[in-house]
Design brief:
- The structure is a single chain.
- By secondary structure, this protein is of the alpha+beta class.
- Helix content is 48%, strand content 14%.
- A five-stranded antiparallel sheet has the order 13-14-15-24-23. A four-stranded antiparallel sheet has the order 1-2-4-3. Strands 5-12-7-10 form a four-stranded antiparallel sheet.
- The longest helix is centred in the first third of the chain and has 31 residues.
- It is globular, with a radius of gyration of 31 Å.
- About 4% of the residues have low confidence.
């Protein structure tokens, strides 16, 4: 295309008395790529175009004329490798312009190639940055590297400040062939390595290969820490292996700097708070001098109240414009308060926090002056207001909270009259009490709310609400009720012989209680019984006695069984578990795809809105440790699996090949509309359903699909590609504005990654760096829901039918059954 559209780009060029044949200039190459790619939106910036050319350079399609530089958007010469080969072999430059058929083929494939390069560009840019010397890395470069380091397993235990320091010194290293030795046993330890791509063997003399390390693993750090020789030889076991490397001098300097910038506050000879000095590089926008690394709960709360909340009388702190002073602009740049509010339940339960707040606002001392006491009260009020507005009902549903809030309100009003001050605090407490009143009214209205877990695999629904009868479907799904701990749920518990009893209990009832009541109803002895989920695949999951929200945690076609612990192998699935769940048996082709996607998104949004951030903590650390339900999160996660298996089920139950082809095309359009509506959770589910092994093996069906549809599917698969910690997805979602329905399984994976890679307690202190990482993941929910979902609906055709249909989808979640259906459609080829 360059030769036909812009032949002048490729020509002989002269520099420093040397002629370079058939060259291009980097800056002109970027101009050209922007010109052809900006029309359809595939190339959006010079930065992206640079990454696309760098990807081609890494694939040896182009090269620097003297092999000295990566690709740069500058007056630097590059050439296509085929021209370089021609120069070296024959010095013949008679190769003419492409033939017309070559031009047509290039035009046809242009969009596809640009799309491929656009996907490769981010990783190529990252490698480009990592190849730069430290002194050439810009602030944006350092931020990109830091974001990359956040998702690397080997660095999870390091503080964020250390990761920011590493961003300035870590370098990229690649080895193209298998069998390359990175270092030998006995060598001096000079570097620490992290595997980005590929794998290595660990070889010890006399023992051979003792283990292998893979993407995300690290090696070589022990020799640096102990200043000892290498304990093993490291050999690449794959071609084109990529590594991150930190050299010894940089490693030791960072460790020294961290210790030098650490401040430890002690009480009775014991550390109670560990702070780290904030450098201008790590957070140039924060006016706070220290960040909290670890501490006791009470001491961190004290530090927060004293440093992050304003105890001054705002009526006396007017700025030059006559406006009241405010810390809000600075608060937005510092997350300590928000991190504390989102995670304190891990290390300081609500009743303990209320006790500490009471102590801070009721300091009894004849030494302290009145202004100090009022400042303490101001800080507590500001904290409580932020706490209630940020966290909401988990704070308000605690019985002790109401009495605390009422007493604080009364004290603030009394002090306001007595001392002629605290007017702003009275307003804040009025807002808090209004929030509590709204909460109390909603709870009164929802009193006696009951849910049911239908016996044939349908999702949990309100008891008495219609399941799918469109004519009775009056309550909009977007106003779905939140499941509370004291709501009742009706469900079945089965025995090994498939007899069952029906139970009705609070969602917060423990598995132990359910087990004992079910045993009594079924006439079983209580000796060594367990409550277990039996999945349609035959897998058995035993519930802990302390588990709550048991019925909502089931998989799509799972059932609750009670059994002797030693007799679990005797449990067999119910006949209906291997069939599809009960749903409305309607032809999905009768619905408009856009209308289907819209109402799917509306319903999913209602489920997503009901999930509280705390449920992520309960799920990750174990709800039995908190005695708190995760029912809203359970239902939303089930929805993802439901959509995924619905797609695979509908295709595998369609006997006619032409209809299967049409159905796949419809699901591809559905995925595209879900992406357009920013329902990324459903987008992932639909694409993963199409990628189910029972569907992808239908080669004859896929061969009948138009090439354009196959290309769209390939693009969608690239977006959900899990490599580099779902880098493609993360880059996509970072560009979206709310409302967004995120890919919830990945959020939970991030929480689990943080939990398993970092200790909660270090030397008896709360590891607050871990709390910060938890809070960062939890904030995603808030950001995604920052605006209401208010897209205009498509022109209605079958609105009532569609809304009923999407609530209870027909799906088979037994992979063995899906595979059997698939083999009947297209038997294995000989």
């Amino acid at each position: 295309m360059i030769l036909t559209r812009s032949p002048g780009l490729v020509r002989d060029r002269r520099q420093q008395s040397r002629t370079f044949r058939r060259c291009l200039v980097g800056a002109e190459m970027v101009d050209w790529l922007l010109a052809i790619g900006s029309a359809n939106g595939q190339v959006k910036s010079r930065h992206q175009a640079t990454g696309m050319w760098q990807a081609l350079l890494e694939e040896s399609i182009i090269q620097h004329v003297t092999h000295e530089h990566p690709f740069r958007d500058k007056y630097i010469f590059y050439r296509f490798s085929i021209d370089a080969d021609t120069e070296h072999s024959s010095r013949s430059w008679s190769r003419g312009l492409p033939q017309p058929e070559d031009e047509r083929e290039a035009d046809t494939k242009c969009s596809e190639v640009l799309g491929y390069l656009a996907q490769r560009a981010p990783d190529a840019i990252m490698r480009l940055i990592l190849r730069k010397p430290s002194y050439e890395r810009t602030t944006d470069d350092l931020e990109m590297i830091y974001d990359e380091l956040l998702s690397i397993k080997a660095l999870a235990h390091l503080s964020n400040s250390v990761k920011r320091e590493l961003a300035g010194v870590i370098v990229f290293e690649a080895h193209s062939t298998t069998g390359t030795v990175l270092f030998h046993q006995g060598d001096e330890g000079k570097s620490w390595y992290i595997i980005l791509r590929g794998s290595v063997n660990v070889v010890i003399r006399g023992k051979g290969t003792v283990t292998s390390l893979y993407e995300g693993d690290d090696f070589g750090k022990l020799a640096l820490v102990n200043d000892a020789p290498r304990a093993a030889t490291i050999v690449t076991r794959e071609d084109n292996s990529h590594f991150l490397r930190v050299d010894k001098d940089d490693f030791n300097r960072i460790l020294r700097d961290v210790e030098a910038n650490t401040v430890r506050l002690k009480e009775h000879g014991q550390d109670v708070l560990v702070l780290e000095k904030i450098s201008g590089n790590s957070n140039p926008y924060s006016h706070f001098k220290y960040s909290v690394m670890s501490g006791t709960g009470p001491k961190m709360l004290e530090h927060l109240l004293e440093t992050r909340l304003d105890g001054r009388d705002k009526s006396l702190t007017m700025n030059q414009d006559g406006e009241k002073g405010s810390m809000s602009s600075n608060m937005e740049c510092d997350s300590f308060l928000d991190d504390f509010l989102l995670t304190h339940i891990i290390f300081m339960p609500i009743h303990q926090l209320l006790t500490e707040l009471t102590r801070h606002c009721r300091i009894e001392s004849s030494v302290q002056d009145r202004e100090f006491l009022l400042a303490c009260k101001r800080r507590v009020v500001q904290f409580v207001h932020r706490w209630v507005t940020t966290i909401g009902y988990p704070v308000l549903e605690e019985p002790i909270s109401h009495s605390f809030l009422q007493e604080l309100m009364d004290e603030v009003q009394k002090d306001s009259v007595s001392f002629n001050t605290l007017y702003d605090e009275v307003l804040l407490m009025n807002q808090v009490m209004d929030i509590y009143k709204t909460y109390a009214d909603e709870r009164l209205q929802a009193a006696g709310q009951k849910w049911k877990l239908p016996p044939c695999g349908q999702p949990v629904s309100l008891f008495g609400a219609p399941m799918s009868n469109g004519e009775d479907y009056e309550v909009p799904v977007e106003r779905r009720a939140v499941m509370r701990h004291d709501d009742d749920i009706i469900f079945r518990v089965y025995c090994a012989d498939h007899t069952y009893c029906t139970l009705r209990f609070h969602l917060s009832t423990t598995a132990e209680t359910l087990k004992h009541v079910a045993a009594d109803k079924l006439g079983l002895k209580h000796d060594d019984l367990v409550l277990v989920e039996l999945k349609s695949s035959g897998e058995k999951i035993v519930f802990n006695d302390g588990d709550v929200s048991v019925p909502t945690s089931l998989s799509i076609n799972g059932r609750i069984f009670i059994s002797l612990r030693d007799h679990l192998d005797a449990l067999t699935c119910l006949p209906e578990q291997e069939k599809s769940t009960e749903g409305r048996e309607m032809d999905v082709e009768m619905f408009s795809t856009r209308e289907l996607a819209y109402h799917l998104t509306i319903f999913d949004w209602s489920l997503f809105r009901a999930v509280h951030e705390y449920e992520l903590i309960y799920k990750t650390l174990g709800r039995h440790n908190f005695g708190k339900i995760t029912s809203n999160l359970d239902v939303f996660l089930r929805r993802f699996n439901e959509i995924q298996f619905w797609v695979a089920t509908e295709i595998c139950l369609t006997n006619n090949m032409s209809r299967r082809v049409a159905l796949i095309r419809k699901f591809l359009k559905l995925a595209a509309y879900c992406k357009e509506y920013q329902n990324i959770n459903a987008f992932f589910a639909v694409v993963m359903g199409l990628g189910n092994s029972a569907v992808t093996r239908l080669t004859s069906t896929w061969e009948r699909l138009p090439s354009k549809s196959r290309k769209v599917f390939a693009e969608f698969e690239a977006l959900i590609e899990p490599s580099r910690n779902h880098r493609a997805y993360r880059m996509t979602i970072n560009k979206l504005s709310p409302p967004v329905i995120p890919f919830m399984p990945l959020l939970l994976k991030d929480m689990t990654f943080t939990h398993e890679g970092n200790k909660t307690w270090t030397d008896g202190l709360v590891n607050f760096e871990k709390m910060h990482m938890f809070a960062s993941a939890m904030r995603v929910l808030r950001l995604c829901r920052a605006r209401p979902f208010s897209l205009p609906p498509p022109t209605p055709r079958n609105e009532i039918e569609v809304r009923g249909y999407i609530r209870s989808l027909r799906c088979i979640d037994n992979q063995r059954t899906l595979n059997t259906l698939s083999l009947k459609l297209e038997p294995k080829r000989a």
